[in-house]
From TrEMBL:
It comes from Gymnopus androsaceus JB14. InterPro entries: Hydant_A_N (IPR008040), Hydantoinase_A (IPR002821), Hydantoinase_B (IPR003692), Oxoprolinase-like (IPR045079). This is 5-oxoprolinase. GO terms for molecular function: 5-oxoprolinase (ATP-hydrolyzing) activity. Residues 686-1192 form the Hydantoinase B/oxoprolinase domain. GO terms for biological process: glutathione metabolic process. Belongs to the oxoprolinase family. Residues 174-454 form the Hydantoinase A/oxoprolinase domain. Residues 1-155 form the Hydantoinase/oxoprolinase N-terminal domain.
Amino acid sequence: MGTTVATNALLERKGEKFGLVMTKGFKDLLQIGDQTRPDLFDLSISTKPTLLYDLEDVVEADERVSMEGWTLDPQSQSQTVEALMQNLGDEEGAVQVGISGEVVRIFKPLDEISLRASLQNLYDKGLRGIAVCLLHSWTYPDHEKRVAEIASEIGFTQISLSSALSPTIKAVNRGNAATVDAYLSPVVRRYVDNFLDNFSDGGLVDSRRFSGLRAVLSGPAGGVVGFAKTSYEQKTGTPVIGFDMGGTSTDVSRFAGKFEHEFNNITAGIQIACPQLGIETVAAGGGSRLTFKNNTFCVGPESVGAHPGPACYRKGGELAITDANLVLGRLVPSTFPSIFGPNADAPLDLDASLAKFQRITDAINAHAPAASKLYTIDQVAAGFLRVANENMSRPMRSLTEQRGYPTSAHNLCCFGGAGGQHACTIAQGLGISLVIVPRFSSVLSAYGIACADADDIWESLAERISKLKKVVERKMQEQGVGAGSEVIEYQVELGCLYDGSDTVLQIPFTEDSNSIPADRDSGYYLGKIKQDFIATHLRETSFSMPLDVLAASIRVRGTSTSSGAGAGGGLKPKRHVSAYFEFADGGKRAQTPVYILGSGSGLKNRNSEGGAGVSKGSIIKGPAIIADTTQTIVVEPGCTAFVLNQHVVIRVGRLGMQVHLRREGKEMEVQGLRNGKQNSQEEEQEERLDFSCSIHSTDGSLVANAPHIPVHLGSMQYAVQSQHQHWLGKLRPGDVLLTNHPEWGGTHLPDLTVSPRSLLPVFHPKDDTKVLFYVASRGHHTDIGGLNIRDQYEPNLEGVVARRVSSPSCYALAASSIEQGFRELFAEPAKYPGSSATRRIDHNITDIQAAISANVRGITLMNTLFEEFGAKTVQFYMSQIQTLAAETVRCFFQDVYARFGGKPLRAKDYMDDGTLIQLEIRIDPKDGNAIFDWTGTGPQTHGNFNSPISLSYAAIIYSLRSMIRADIPMPLNQGVLDPVTNVVPKGSFLNPSGVVAISGSTIASQRLVDVILRAFNAAAASQGCANSLGFGTGGKDAFGNVIPGFAYGEAIGGGSGAGEGWHGSHAISVHSTNTRLTDVEVIEARCPLLVEEFSIRRGSGGSGKWKGGDGCIRHIKARIPVNCSIVSQRRVFSPFGLEGGGDGARGRNLWIRHDPEDGSVTEINLGNNGMVKLGKGDSVRIETPGGGGLGKLLTYMSFAYSNFTITRLQMHLCSEPTENESAFSRLIHKSRHLLQHSNVSMVVDCN
């Protein structure tokens, strides 16, 4: 059997307490994660997932292992394992070959004595489980195994090792897998007992091998098997989306003839590295709680549970989706058994649902503006259902479109207890024309588990497939499967990837390559696999690359097929009849009101049809409800249900354009995340996701975008508009443009924008020079040539070109071939003295191709809209959603004008070099327009902090979207800026001339956002920069010789500012950047660097009623001589607090220099900008700023009684009020001590 117990426990955070063992210096690694914000425009960062463990239960194991033979160093790339073992250098520590074949160095063996003491402390606290994640244990698990032995000796009963659960590189993902397992395994173990349970990849295994990690999505996996076997027709081959809506969550999956597995999954906000069926889960089920928070309709993630359950269950429960369906007439109470109430003998209670909806409706209307129309109960309930339907639709788009499949080309298979009430509406919104409701829909997961095939997986990097088959056969026989005359069928998959990429695609062997024929040589075998990989990559990304294809793994699956499952008679109706419907009990069908969610929403009459009494082959036109004792199906208006032998099949009518145009933003997200990441060779784009995509209208103005990096998206339209004007009438289908120049809309030179003209389908049919729309991508390139280390990490740039690639506009691709001029452009910097060209031109070209691929995908998705609705209609709605954005911003400005009494909004701040940033915002209350006036801002500087004018627009767009309530629909496009007049003095550092260096992307843009938010009194200052740290070797030497080398860079998170109602977040990317931080293990595998510490800088956030977030500490050691640079801010001026809140701590950049002669250590402050040549063993320690606090914590303290000592303390506090929380804590401690030694026993006043 499968179970959702684990998934629900994870969603609701109801697992078992456990301890966590991490490598010393990395106790906060899993809390920091990849440092990104889940919701780009949520200033409170409230959606960041909570930890599964308590911080005080983290143990640091004193040990350290790292890799030898870093892959980015050209001197090491050609070395074999044997060569590495012979040339180990003089570093300390033993060296051996790990289980993956890589060479590892053990810098510090495990300190077992201190570890045992720490584990004993956890055990004495009552903990009985631990999770263990030590660095590089994926290839060297010995230390983790020893931790397990010690823990077992102490008495721990649950020990989850990351190396055993997920033996793959990336410590954060592996550590998450271990914590999930330790958190859930005890819960699952209590639940499972002696049953056989189902793995989440769709096969049966012995219950003794079932764990909390594997239990996640095990129940949903049964549903995948169930709908695959009942709803997929081999004849037509139409892929099916599985929509499994249960009580607590909804699971979405896809089947197209074979089960699709994924190895990195996000469930309940936690990235889990474990092979599973491709299932996405969202916390929206029939029991999801409905609340109204911060003027927002919220569905989940909390569940009312089975007990007490929804309000209608008669046990005093809170409102849930089930209640909304009930009050809207979308459920038939008479079909439910009388099992509710404290005695389990009463029917559903409609009155209880109505009473609670009345209360929440009154609360909502109390927050409504005076002149607005009040909501009714029906409208409120319908609003909650719309939120729930949208939440459930998003993973369906992701699961299909990110793989290159249009969502509308699928059927929707609806199952689970609540799915039938939502399927038609969701299908309409997704453009899906056919909904399938299987006979066993409400129990399909259990049915699928009964039908599941027994299987096992065994991974290996070796090419001995036959050996793996024997292992699989033995393991299956141990489970009592495949013995005797039963035949085991084997499926073999090869994990393939392009050389230089980390994206692995699973390629199944075809029939003739499942086993290597004797008459075929290895060339045939490998050639066939390579062809299949290229074809799969081309389908999913719209692009192939001229690179070697590598094999990363081999997977062998053995299957003993079960019987009795099938498609159940096909999906076509047997006959068309005029049916007279009756309930199963013989009663005639009823006519009752039902609330319709779609176009023309409101109350309408619908027919109630009894499922058991409906004859096969019947046709039911909506609005109608088909109900029996196990399921309820709502047939919306315009939809028609056909009752077949094993299914109810619903033909779905269309919704209006207002629904379909919401797909544009999602299609840009698909364009960016799937194609840009998978194809990129750059660390910046592939690992850190430093890229963005957007759609632009005929004139180049922004229509929709994928919200990846805000500073890109607000400024990309200026790049596109510049290209539009420059090339007007000159381009032809298939042309692609490249630009990065700040005066042409660029942010800084390493951000290259690729903006293709549309392919033929999006040109005017009678004029192939008339553009219908543009699609653009912008991505950061690690190395584009230059003077020193790399791009913006050079703190001493002097001019805008700075002897690097600078392109106002050029062809990157024409007639489907790379232009020679493109290569010449990247070679240009080498012509300058002391400057070198890019060190990896092949990576640059490949990344341009990846950007083109992303654009092609975006064009393909947009073409679908043009084909469906026509160019005029789509362009009309492109204009309309810009108008919607403009009107939303105008209403916001008018509200701000009223709140501030019509006064201008003013704010200022200083860059670390003393340059003033000054802003005044004047709002016109009549038309809702606003002037952002930066007059008084300091002049352009002799450095690289100057910001192109496009970035001030980007900061305004980001800030406005972040301050406008999330529940207010506001597309992020050019319309946001229509009510804004942006006054930026020419020659200021926010609008510089063409003679100074520009790198405002990660520096000035952060400071502009802080100033804008300060003017609106919206949030205290965040860390104020991106802490751009870079390392590299190579380039031109003093004699002009080009030395091969590498380049690596990262942007480091810090503290976010507090706001009214929320504390700041720790160690996170803030505001205009949201890049991922490369995993520690990946850095050390690729670069000659050793990360010695990565932790949260505790106490660096500002004090106050709402505390600022803490910064972080990043300590990196050079294993060979390398160049290092840091570009940062907030090292002089602290991140400010608001309304009496304390400032965040300033950052620090330290060079820790080891003298090669005497071994002495010297600390050198690098200031906010610095560039040094690190010797072997030198390190840099970056301490990033904290965020500012908001509101006064307290001002004074007094006591009711006093003696001499207490009176002095009272006078001290009253005369010298403190806003420093740590100082106050010391005073509290002192006062308690004094109270214990006097007759005073009561404190009466503490403010």
